[in-house]
Amino acid sequence: MTEIALFVAIGAVGLAQILAMVRLLRGPHVGDRIIALDTMVINAIALIILAGLYFGTQVYFESAMIIAMLGFVSTVALCRFVLRGDIIE
């Protein structure tokens, strides 16, 4: 029963990843594309955590934490670049 729930969750997050990719490619504004990219990072983290639950190892959780930190920093840097034209003041 647990495996069925994991496969359903992986399918739902995978579908969300595909829809975010469509928004990234077709987004009318730069802000929409930045939000879609951040959503894709969050969906990738969710997929890694679900893989960690399925395989039962903690390595996936540690890598998800690293990707979460890098995703946050990169989103902030990209937003600052779009708004100001530079990243470092």
What are the low-pLDDT stretches, counting only 5+ consecutive residues below 50? none
The CATH topology corresponds to Helix Hairpins
Determine the fraction of residues in helical runs and give it as a percent range: over 70%
Gross morphology is flat
CATH architecture: Orthogonal Bundle
Describe the largest sheet.
none
Strand content: under 5%
**Tally of strands:** 0
Number of spatially distinct domains: 1
CATH class: Mainly Alpha
Task: Return Rg in Å.
Answer: 15 Å
Q: What is the typical, i.e. mean, pLDDT?
A: 92
Give the termini separation: 53 Å
Content-based structural category: mainly alpha
Individual helix count: 3
Order of helices and strands: HHH
Question: How would you describe the overall organization of this protein?
Answer:
With 89 residues, the chain is mainly alpha-helical. It has a single domain, classed as Helix Hairpins (Orthogonal Bundle). It is built from three helices and no strands. It has helices at 2-26, 30-55, 59-84. The longest helix has 26 residues, at 30-55. The model has no long low-confidence stretch (mean pLDDT 92).
Briefly summarize what is shown.
The protein is mainly alpha-helical and 89 residues long.
